[in-house]
């Protein structure tokens, strides 16, 4: 579920329906929060810590995608 939250981002360039992606992203984040609260009721900071990792993980994902595209263009 956390992987889906990382990968689904309304901030990606070239999106045609940003509102749909934002709605999906919000649904995934709510589901993740619910799951964490259910499985770790005494550790309320886990959800916040995961959300704080999102910018770095998305940046890493973008860099990886760029490298893959460059590799395909210049084998």
UniProtKB/TrEMBL annotation:
Pfam families: Hormone_recep. Keywords: DNA-binding, Metal-binding, Nucleus, Receptor, Transcription, Transcription regulation, Zinc, Zinc-finger. The gene is SF-1. SUPFAM superfamilies: Nuclear receptor ligand-binding domain (SSF48508). GO terms for molecular function: nuclear receptor activity; RNA polymerase II cis-regulatory region sequence-specific DNA binding; zinc ion binding. Residues 1-75 form the NR LBD domain. One of its GO terms (biological process) is hormone-mediated signaling pathway. This is Nuclear receptor subfamily 5 group A member 1-like protein.
């Amino acid at each position: 579920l956390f992987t889906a939250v990382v990968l689904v981002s309304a901030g990606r360039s070239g999106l045609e329906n940003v509102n749909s992606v934002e709605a999906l992203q919000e649904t995934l984040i709510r589901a993740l929060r619910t799951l964490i609260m259910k499985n770790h009721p005494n550790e309320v900071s886990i959800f916040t810590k995961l959300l704080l990792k999102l910018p770095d993980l998305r940046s890493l994902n973008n860099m990886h995608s760029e490298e893959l595209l460059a590799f395909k263009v210049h084998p």
